[in-house]
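Hypothesis: this fold can be encoded by more than one sequence.
Test: take the structure tokens below, design a sequence, compare later.
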């Protein structure tokens, strides 16, 4: 395991409903936007968040953004404890996009982000190295 004095990760805090194992964005947003201290304490216990770690940007005051995504993910994997914890989960790079998107659709998730494996991290800007693929759920009806 890699040791670190400081680091900056890219990821997302999520709440997964234990009864469905699905990410519940509305509950997460309500939990995170509450200003009332008592409500915050209650919601923290009732709806524990997990941090999904996608990437590492900075390690021991050294920027890693000019390295490829796969290099950064390798460093991230070495930094995190083995196995997922209650509060932290490593998100691996997937190459089987069709199968992955089929899983997203089956779970009725929002979508996925695909990133170039050799892509650099561009701070504060968008590029075609990252694409958001939405899981649009639509139905057609014929109305007479």
């Amino acid at each position: 395991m890699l040791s670190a004095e400081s680091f900056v990760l890219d990821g997302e805090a999520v709440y997964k409903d234990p009864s469905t194992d699905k990410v519940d964005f509305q509950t997460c947003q309500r939990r995170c936007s509450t200003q009332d201290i008592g409500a915050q304490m209650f919601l923290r216990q009732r709806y524990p968040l997990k941090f999904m770690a996608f990437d590492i940007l900075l390690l021991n005051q050294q920027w890693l953004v000019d390295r490829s995504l796969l290099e950064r993910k390798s460093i991230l994997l070495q930094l995190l404890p083995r196995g997922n914890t209650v509060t932290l989960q490593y998100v691996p790079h997937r190459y089987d996009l069709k199968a992955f998107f089929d899983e997203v659709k089956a779970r009725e998730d929002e979508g996925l982000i695909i990133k170039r494996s050799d892509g650099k991290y561009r701070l504060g800007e968008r590029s075609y190295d990252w694409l958001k693929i939405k899981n649009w759920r639509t139905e057609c009806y014929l109305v007479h």
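Residues 69-79 form the longest helix (11 residues). Residues 7-134 form a domain with the D-amino Acid Aminotransferase; Chain A, domain 1 fold (CATH 3.30.470.30).
Hypothesis status: open.
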